[in-house]
Design goal:
The chain is α+β, with helices and mostly antiparallel strands. The chain is built from 7 helices and 9 strands. It folds into 2 domains: about 40-180, Beta Barrel (OB fold (Dihydrolipoamide Acetyltransferase, E2P)), CATH 2.40.50; about 180-235, no CATH class. About 25% of the residues lie in helices and about 20% in strands. Helix 3 (about 125-130) packs parallel to helix 4. The longest helix is centred in the N-terminal third of the chain and has 16 residues, at about 1-15. Keywords: Signal.
């Protein structure tokens, strides 16, 4: 009997070790620096600066998503149009977006709650807050990146960017998509300042910062690129 159990054990262990499904991160595509657990979707509508609609896989049903970590101006308020246009620039219709859950999955309107990254792996909420299109927002217990969002808000507030400027947006603000920022994952342009500097990448990642790409992010030079792939502080 003991002999049978000893022989069977490796088989059981092997079965347990096999993943039940492919990991979402593995299926996420080629965007660099995405956190583990993201889901891939396609952008089908921009409702406003913090609400979008996406489709998962081959489904024909549009799912409404409320972005976590931020709050943009409501319809009719100053900077509503600019925040919506900025979201549209960051999340082009028909392109891939990567969605990450936190603790709560739905709000009281039935919208799905996700952190959203665009096809380049850029955190949309962080970009909108960094450049003054939105405030940081802790929604219930979804606090995974709230410290990072609040740091970005403090920077934008200090520089009196957009919603912190004391004025309303105009037609000039709507025709300035800031293409350089879009190409460099949002780490350039008006009001830019570097991330906090940490002793190690592990500390940076724990605080919600990184990854950094060579020739794109100045913060890249602070850390050791052990595998020489042009990225440091990868998740």
């Amino acid at each position: 009997m003991r002999r049978v159990l000893r022989l069977a054990l490796p088989v059981v262990t092997a079965l347990v070790a096999l993943p039940l499904t492919a990991s979402p991160a593995a299926a996420a595509g080629s965007a660099a620096g995405l956190p583990r657990g993201v889901q891939k979707a396609r952008v089908v509508r921009i409702v406003d600066g913090d609400t979008i609609e996406v489709r998962f896989g081959k489904s024909s049903r549009a799912v409404r998503v409320r972005l976590l970590g931020l709050d943009t101006p409501e319809y009719g308020r100053c900077w509503f149009d600019s925040a919506t246009e900025r979201a549209r620039t960051l999340l082009p219709l028909g392109r891939t977006a990567y969605l990450l859950r936190d603790r709560d999955y739905k709000d009281h309107y039935g919208r799905r709650l996700f952190y959203v990254y665009n096809h380049r792996g850029l955190s949309v909420a962080r970009n909108l807050i960094r450049y003054g299109y939105a405030k940081s927002l802790l929604y219930r217990k979804n606090d995974r990146y709230i410290r990072t969002m609040r740091l970005e808000e403090a920077r934008a507030r200090k520089r009196r960017l957009r919603i912190w400027s004391g004025r309303c947006d105009s037609s000039k603000d709507l025709v300035a998509p800031l293409p350089v920022e879009a190409r460099t994952a949002g780490y350039a342009g008006p009001g830019w300042s570097p991330d906090p500097r940490f002793r190690t990448c592990r500390s940076a990642l724990s605080a919600g910062f990184g990854p950094y790409e060579r020739s794109v992010h100045p913060e890249y030079a602070w850390y050791h690129d052990a595998d020489r792939d042009g990225l440091v502080c990868e998740r």
